[in-house]
Design a protein that fits this description.
This protein is α+β, with helices and mostly antiparallel strands. The chain has a single domain (37-325), classed as Tachylectin-2, Chain A (5 Propeller), CATH 2.115.10. 16% of the residues lie in helices and 42% in strands. The protein has four helices and 22 strands. The strands form six sheets. The chain has a four-stranded antiparallel sheet. It has a four-stranded antiparallel sheet with strand order 2-3-4-5, with no helix packed on it. It has a four-stranded antiparallel sheet with strand order 6-7-8-9, with no helix packed on it. Strand 3 and strand 4 (99-103) form a beta hairpin. The longest helix has 38 residues, at 2-39. It is globular. The chain starts with a helix and ends in a 7-residue tail after the last helix. The model is unreliable at 19-39 (pLDDT under 50).
């Protein structure tokens, strides 16, 4: 009887050991598959940054689509539709109007449109429900364009103009001016915010309602935010909302991504649960989410920064579930 018990015990131990080996091999294979996948689609100059920025490089799934370098234009905003990328640029010399480029998914220009202003165009949001493109104008104005108008050769005219949203969003370079530094749309809510160097910035939340053939914005609340915010976006999963902030200032300072569990009951971003911080190369601009991916652009790819030690002219795509949850199963 004892001999039988010993044999059964040994068999159970062997089965458990084999199961554990198979589990860890599966995890390792997932990681190897993930790493092999991104090695094939990431530019070598970014892969070479893996020692200094491991969380950035190791979570990339794509970074080989280069944005066009256009004279003195500086890339700022990025939005993604089912058909293309939309990228905004401002003229660092303030001589010409700001630009919006439609790019295909290989980075080639489909169409280029001039805006009727010289705004910093620090953010852009694509409203897929209404087929609208939201872009900040000068002195705190928010212009809203029909997405279809970016395909034609006619002068670009806003379909809606909001002039009183940013009365308390101060331009950090000129206290007499207002500026929407970044924006995003999450479901039927608009979020706009201000960049700040010393004091905490602000994020304002509005409800978007369709009023017959018009758009109505209703103020909900204001959040105290962080310094140096260049972009914000949301990722929604299983009834949870994750707020993603991109922070950057200066060509020699590292950028950062902060990820929070978004809580509408809090009045300050710093009061929310910060679940992740990632260090990135300098000069990060907009961050935006589509499906299970986080898209980033850097302004270091422009002519202005061609002497920088680190230049990123590619649109960078990160696996967001891998980034937040360390989950290698979200490879595709």
């Amino acid at each position: 009887m004892k001999k039988r018990i010993i044999i059964i015990s040994v068999a159970v131990i062997i089965i458990l050991s084999i199961s554990l080996i198979m589990f860890f091999n599966k995890e390792n294979n997932n990681e190897i598959e993930y790493i092999n996948k991104f090695n094939n689609v990431i530019d070598d100059n970014i892969i070479n940054l893996s020692n200094d920025y491991p969380l950035f490089v190791n979570n990339l799934t794509n970074a080989n689509i280069k944005m066009p370098i256009i004279d003195n234009m500086i890339p700022q905003g990025l939005a993604i539709t089912n058909d293309n990328y939309i990228v905004t640029y401002y003229d660092e010399l303030q001589e010409t109007s700001s630009l919006v480029d439609l790019l295909d998914f290989e980075g080639k220009i489909i169409n280029e449109k001039k805006l009727n202003n010289k705004s910093h165009v620090g953010g852009i949001a694509y409203d897929s429900k209404r087929k609208l493109v939201w872009i900040p104008g000068e002195n705190g104005i928010l212009n809203v364009y029909s997405y279809n108008d970016f395909y034609n050769d006619e002068k670009l005219i806003p379909q809606y103009v909001f002039t009183n949203l940013s009365d308390d969003l101060i331009n950090y370079k000129n206290k007499n001016e207002r500026e929407i530094s970044f924006l995003t749309i999450n479901e039927d809510k608009l979020y706009i915010g201000s960049f700040s160097l010393k004091n905490s910035g602000k994020i304002k939340e509005y409800q978007i309602d369709d009023n017959n053939s018009n758009i109505k914005l209703t103020f909900i609340k204001e959040y105290s935010s962080l310094n140096y915010i260049q972009g914000m976006t949301f990722y929604n999963l299983n009834d949870k909302q994750y707020l993603i902030l991109g922070l950057s200032y200066g060509r020699n300072n590292n950028s950062q991504i902060y990820i929070y569990e978004f809580d509408e009951n809090k009045n300050s971003i710093s009061e929310m649960n910060n679940i992740k911080e990632i260090i990135l190369p300098p000069l990060l601009e907009q961050v935006t989410v589509k499906d299970n991916y986080l898209y980033l652009i850097f302004e270091s790819g422009s002519k202005k920064y061609q002497n920088n030690l680190i230049i990123i002219s590619e649109i960078c795509v990160m696996n967001i579930n891998r980034l937040i949850f360390d989950d290698y199963s979200y490879v595709l």
